[in-house]
Specification:
By secondary structure, this protein is mostly helical. The chain is built from 16 helices and no strands.
Length: about 400
Amino acid sequence: MTAGDVAMVVSLAGSLFFSISPDAARSKVLLYLLVSFAPFAVVAPFIGPFVDRAPGGRRLIIQLTGIGRALLFVTMIFHLGDLLLFPLSFGVMILQKTYGVSRSALIPTVVKSKTELVEANSKLGLISGATGALAAAPAGALAAISPKLSLMFGVVMFVCAVISATRLPRGFAAPSAQPVERLELRNASLRSAAVAMSIIRAVIGFMFFELLFWLRENSYSNVWIGAVIGASTFGLMIGNGLASPLRGRLREELMLTTAIVMIAVVGIGAALFGGVGAAIVLAGVVNMASGIGRMAFDSIVQRDAPDANQGRAFAKFETRFQLSWAVAGVIPVLVTFPGRVAFLVVGLVGGVAVFLYVQSSRSAANRRSPVASAADVLRRRPARGGRPTDPGRRSRPGSAGRSGGREAH
């Protein structure tokens, strides 16, 4: 799936940003930010519940997103030069986010215990990053000949993904939202982690567009822009790789704290040194922190909301995170700051995030959450047939999950 996504990015590269002046690029980027958030507006109310309740389970959803994207790529090949390209790209983004929600929701069914969640998330993130880097070479070579060839490469990758997905456990349809699910998603620890992750995503959005416009306005060549993007990708891969060994020493909450501390420290350090070198380091470390934080947050959701329908839960949080990314990204598009000022903003926002998260975590630790207590009561409450109500377990057969774990990896 990642290789297919890279093929589309490479095929369409240059049409949005690099081929026009910085002033003309601003309106294009603002439109892009709107389009990038729009799929989440669809994912949250509709696709999340659909992922949970589909008769064929989440494996079927993953296969359908692969088939759908392959068909859209084939259609895009014939419409690269006209307005139909925009709704086609929009459809691809919706299916991309649907796949992401389905993948996150599927992970708890293919691990043996909660302690393996971070390791599984870390492996998938690391594999995705490595695959994206490897796929960029053939996709780029084909795009240099013709963008249509790169899109065909993406079609082949999606077909391979659909075939590979047949090895995943099929799963069962989840029931509609239950009171225990709503209570678990209001858990104090989970809400604090969601706020911290929203701030991290906001920093990513601000920094990405700030660096792009700052580098272009200061007449840096595209080589330096490529170096920033490369550092971002490499940093994310390192963060995904570090998440699993960190989990062996730290709880998920401490991993998330470490991530936002890294952002605060590197932002202030980059402001002190300044220059394009500091920008490259900042991009790499912030994305590394994002990778660690995201692995920790996914595991917190999977750990603290076991009875929640995971598709709905991840769709809800992804919508919030994408909104944070898009809103923060608008700021440097409208007003680009001097380099040192922008770096300092990143560091100060990281410092505020550390303070807020540590305070909220202490408050949650000093008292047992009444939400969690209520969730325990609801989970044990007998249903009409005299059995405990546990919608989460009904939606995740243990034997299927355990048998599919190695194949999923």
